[in-house]
Amino acid sequence: MPTASTVDRPVRVYADGIFDLFHSGHARALMQAKTLFPNSYLLVGVCSDDLTHKFKGFTVMNEAERYEALRHCRYVDEVIRDAPWTLTPEFLEKHKIDFVAHDDIPYSSAGSDDVYKHIKEAGMFVPTQRTEGISTSDIITRIVRDYDVYARRNLQRGYTAKELNVSFINEKKYRFQNQVDKMKEKVKNVEERSKEFVNRVEEKSHDLIQKWEEKSREFIGNFLELFGPDGAWKQMFQERSSRMLQALSPKQSPVSSPTRSRSPSRSPSPTFSWLPIKTSPPSSPKAASASISSMSEGDEDEK
Predict the structure, then answer these.
(1) What is the rounded CA–CA span in Å between residue 177 and residue 199?
(2) H/E/C letters for each residue in 151-189?
(3) Residue 243 exposed, middle or buried by CB count within 10 Å (0-12, 13-18, 19+)
(4) Which segment of the chain is annotated as a signal peptide (predicted)?
(5) Phi/psi class of residue 140: alpha, beta or left (left: φ > 0; alpha: ψ in -120 to 50)?
(6) In 129-185, which ranges are E strands?
(7) What SS3 state is found at 301?
(8) How would DSSP label each residue in 273-300?
(9) CB 18 within 8 A of CB 49
(10) Cβ atoms 52, 16 nearer than 8 A
(11) Is the dihedral of CA 191, 194, 200, 204 positive or negative?
């Protein structure tokens, strides 16, 4: 059997498995097998459904789906369909396999404690490391554990109870739980919207209060500037008061004003010519003519 140091062609490495629910653990194992040698050709054998169901159990993916999943893995150069459960010398010779890559844990199956025992004894076995925390069995366990959740989700997506192998009672229960979840979601959305509304109102209230404080300070400052102790209103009031006082109390005339010269011979006597003179009516025409003549004589004497 050729070794890696003697062959002048790519080293043909073989890895086999079921590869159900292809996941990152599978991909990492194939990556290790591909990078065992600088120049290698990786062949991956995939067992059929009949062989897998006989020796291991029921699979989630059928063989066609598992073949297709391996074909799209970047580390795989060739997929061998309907691979044997136990590797025979004829199979190794047919595919010109140099080394077999698999994890080193003994794989007991098909009446053997380790199906890779004879490969290890021939020096053709290269171990790979398993990825902890991920395996097909782990994924199936998660699905079984959360079966109700997945059943409800698929019912909501349009799958029938028969397709999901769900009883009539469980179907009604799941649909009722879906309705309850919808109501909870609506209530949650309303609460979130209410919180957003309250937050917006608080922000706007804060802005309004801040603007009101600024305006009030501006108003108070203008008021004090106008009506304060030294404000413009006081100065204007004082100016108007002084003008009113000047208008109400005009300047007095001078004391030494010239006087009219009067005649020294006669002192002035006020005449009240405008006052009416009360006279008794004459008792006869003769008396009236006598009074008129006496008044005329008096005037002539005065002149």
Answers:
(1) 33
(2) HHHHHHCCCCCCCCCCCHHHHHHHHHHHHHHHHHHHHHH
(3) exposed
(4) none
(5) alpha
(6) none
(7) helix
(8) TTSPPP-PPPSSHHHHHHHHHHHHHHHH
(9) no
(10) no
(11) negative
Please name the amino acid found at residue 5: S
112 DSSP β-pair partners = 109
Is residue 110 a contact partner of residue 24, using CB atoms and an 8 Å limit? no
Helix (H, G, I), strand (E, B) or coil at 43: strand
At residue 232's C-alpha, the angle toward residues 229 and 233, to 5°, is 80
Structure tokens at 234: 């006081």
User: Within 13 Å, how many C-alpha atoms sit on residue 36's CB side?
Assistant: 27
AA letter at 146: D
Give the whole-angstrom CA distance, residue 146 versus residue 129: 29
Q: What is the DSSP string of 179-197?
A: HHHHHHHHHHHHHHHHHHH
3-state secondary structure of 45: strand
User: Residue 152 is encoded by which pair of tokens?
Assistant: 């409800």
Q: CA of 183: how far to CAs of 148, 158, 187, 190, 221, in Å? A: 19, 19, 6, 11, 56
Paired strand residues for 166: none
**Contacts of residue 70, Cβ cutoff 8 Å, sequence gap at least 6:** 19, 22, 44, 46, 76, 79
147 vs 140: CA distance, rounded Å: 10
165 has a pLDDT exceeding 70:
yes
> What gap in Å lies between CA 131 and CA 28, rounded to an integer?
7
Residues 6+ apart with CB under 8 A from 164: 151, 154, 155
pLDDT digits (tens, 9 = 90+) for 55-85: 989 999 999 999 999 999 999 999 999 999 9
Output the 3-class SS for 77-138: CEEEECCCCCCCHHHHHHCCCCEEEEECCCCCECCECCCCHHHHHCCCEEEECCCCCCCHHH
88-121 per-position pLDDT tens digit:
999 999 999 999 999 998 888 767 788 999 999 9
